[in-house]
Write a structure and sequence with these properties.
Blueprint: H1 2-47, H2 65-77, E1 81-83, H3 96-108, E2 114-119, H4 126-146, E3 154-160, H5 171-177, E4 179-184
Parallel strand pairs: 2-3
Antiparallel strand pairs: 1-4, 2-4
Helix pairs in contact: 3-4
Subcellular location: Cell outer membrane
Subunit structure: The Tol-Pal system is composed of five core proteins: the inner membrane proteins TolA, TolQ and TolR, the periplasmic protein TolB and the outer membrane protein Pal. They form a network linking the inner and outer membranes and the peptidoglycan layer.
Signal peptide: 1-21
Length: 185
């Protein structure tokens, strides 16, 4: 009789012990996972940002065609002077790339207009300098038209010796004043 009670007790206790053993291993892994989560949360809090799984970066605003055109124009206006040799009106080859950049911009923007201003140093008569400034401006105009720019986009003006950028009677001042300037309207 006593033995039967013990055997029944063992049969009842054995599944309970088995369940407890299985559940204890699950709870230990849960406890470890919870510990890892709290550690990562603590490190995120310590760094000042919470890890949400979403990367945060800077959003770059896409520029409108008008903004791009304006930036190109401003870049060209920083480099808009073609210098000439003494008493010459032909464009030196060192300025071909500069003029090609301006021509490309004007071809891509047919509504854009440019005025080419011709200038001279103060040597020569006023009439001669007006004519030389005009020849210089027209030389640049011809180059631009040969590069595909419409004649309707270009106007020419000669200031002769009237608007010098450098004062004085030095060769350096004269060289800076012998120029054509592309001015966008």
């Amino acid at each position: 009789m006593q033995l039967n009670k013990i055997i029944k007790g063992v049969f009842i206790a054995l599944p309970v012990v088995t369940l407890m053993a299985c559940s204890s291993s699950t709870s230990s892994s849960d406890a470890e996972a919870a510990r890892n989560a709290s550690n990562s949360s603590a490190s995120s809090s310590a760094s000042g940002s919470e890890n949400t799984g979403v990367e945060v970066g800077t959003v770059v605003k896409e520029k409108s065609p008008e903004e791009i055109r304006q930036e190109q124009k401003e870049a060209l206006m920083r480099n808009q002077v073609v210098y000439f040799d003494f008493d010459r009106s032909s464009v030196n080859s060192e300025f071909y790339s500069l003029l090609n950049e301006h021509a490309e911009f004007l071809r891509n923007n047919p509504s854009q207009r440019v005025t080419i201003e011709g200038h001279c140093d103060k040597r020569g008569t006023p009439e001669y300098n007006i004519a030389l400034g005009e020849r210089r401006a027209k030389s640049v105009e011809t180059f631009m038209q040969n590069a595909g720019v419409s004649a309707s986009q270009i106007s020419v003006v000669s200031y002769g010796e009237e608007k010098p950028v450098a004062m004085g009677d030095t060769e350096r001042a004269f060289k800076q004043n012998r120029r054509a300037v592309l001015v966008y309207n």
